[in-house]
Predict the structure.
Amino acid sequence: MHNPYAEMAHLPYPEVLQKVWERHPRMNLTDRAKIFSPFAALRGYEDEIANKRFENLNVQKDELLEDSRAELDEALNALLERLENGEHPSVYVTYFVQNPNLEKGMGTYPSAKGTLQKFDAHTKILTIAGQKIPLSSIRKIFTHF
């Protein structure tokens, strides 16, 4: 096979390129690789995507063990006390939502983050950032996140 550039391959580089390379030396391969290495343009994006995948996963509703129930009750009581004192603490809650298209006890575990606005003692519903969450469906609650 004939190479159309064979007669030029042995010639030196043009003088113009020689001067450019003197002013702008070639970058070594390590530094050049750093330019093209992956980076996180959106910090935390991967975690959010993983959380969304988990939230949309239909699973069997889990029952809390006595220890976990006691911890949750303690955290809820402390939050309700703060709410009664006029505070509106920031909370992060994971709770169960029944999927109406599946059998009883199957659903998702979405999360809500925001300020605790109110608690209705009659219906036992927390309002967090405008979202109503029944106490019976809460699995985890955090005040420091």
In short: The mean pLDDT is 85. Strands lie at 59-60, 90-95, 97-98, 106-108, 111-120, 125-128, 131-134, 138-142. The longest strand covers residues 111-120.
